[in-house]
Amino acid sequence: METKDKVLLGVSSNILLLGVVSFFTDISTELIMSVLPTFLVISLGATPEIVGTIEGIAESMTSFLKLVSGAIADRTGKKKRLTVIGYALSNITKPIMGFATSWWDVLALRIGDRIGKGLRTAPRDAMIADSSDSRIGRSFGIHRTLDQLGAVVGPVLAFLLLIPLGYGGIFLFTAIPGAIAIAILVIFVKEPPSKTKPNKAILKNARAIMNRSFSMYIVSATLYAASAISYAFILLRAIEVGIPAEMTALVYALIQIFHVFSGVPAGEISDRFGRIRAVQAGYLLLLAAFATIAFSTEPWTFLFGVILFGMHQGTVETSQRAVIPSLTKEEFKGTAYGVYNMAVGAVALPTNIAAGFIYASLGSQYAFLYGSILALFASLAMAATQMTLKRKMEK
């Protein structure tokens, strides 16, 4: 089947199938993530600093891989192969967490999972772009929505399965949706025809794409990544405002529900009104979400902040990736996605260590205010990106 055939919602079958792969992978991922903070703190005796360090190391250690995988995809033109390897590694690693007996075990397995994500993210995004027409915002929005539907199902399943299976049983259960995801990817997803011939892209081509507009965009995206501290702190904050620990999986599900609802509208808004404006709106939603969470003293106000946080995620994660093809040359698209993913991943370790330290030493309110301030700076940098692009178009 040609990847350009329109089969549903105005996008190709390849985009829908990649979305289904992400759906099942996210079920397995979010089954774990919705209970991992409480598992670490309650069962393994970890502190908030350790929780933040685990998430920071897991994300940051894979950031360079995202650049390498994007460059390799450009060089070979074989984006599906790297995507398959990445999804397979993640989905094989996660069930082993059922045997973890210390936070060191969790750290090692989270690194393995994130290495898989590091390998697959840039070539997969390039596949989506290659399978899209001019409505690339819609393509990423639909993919993101299918992805996040899995992120809703995962924590709901975790809530239902926690009592009968326990933490270890939930981790082992992730093997089922993970196997389905790999099978769909291998059997049904096609290598899309590249819009350019494979080139000899190597890492030095990262310098070739760093024009002023792209550089400012990366600065803004990096500041945003520094502001978007881990989910783990939101779930720990939920317990502080009076939500029982066994209900935190449903708090996580609420985030993902509003993430889903905002994905496709964000893609449509970015296509119609401008992708950069859509990203900036997402940054401002994050600022409002963290400020609300920081000052909440009751569960209902906290949950309103959680809803805003979910809306921000759907807006940013759809629109951010859709901007990139307009900022760089077609033949370096995979490398550009790699640079973007590397930059935002590189700050995960320091920002989560900082948030964990602030959370433990000053209190949770200050950790979220820290995120709010960085979100404001990210929004200002995005405004500067818009101005740079405007000047470029006027020349």
Automatic annotation (TrEMBL):
PROSITE patterns assigned to the protein according to its UniProt record, in alphabetical order: MFS (PS50850)
GO MF annotation: an example: transmembrane transporter activity
Domain Major facilitator superfamily (MFS) profile stretches = 14-390
Q: Which Gene3D superfamilies does this UniProt record tie to the protein?
A: MFS general substrate transporter like domains
Q: What is this protein called?
A: Major facilitator superfamily (MFS) profile domain-containing protein
Q: Which SUPFAM superfamilies match?
A: MFS general substrate transporter
Q: Which InterPro entries match?
A: MFS, MFS_dom, MFS_trans_sf
Traced from the root, the source organism's taxonomic lineage reads:
Archaea, Thermoproteota, Methanosuratincolia, Candidatus Methanomethylicales, Candidatus Methanomethylicaceae
Q: Which organism is it from?
A: Methanosuratincola subterraneus
Query: Transmembrane residues, as ranges?
Result: 7-25, 169-189, 214-235, 247-264, 276-294, 337-360, 366-385
Q: Name one Pfam family in it.
A: MFS_1
UniProt keyword terms in alphabetical order: Membrane, Transmembrane, Transmembrane helix
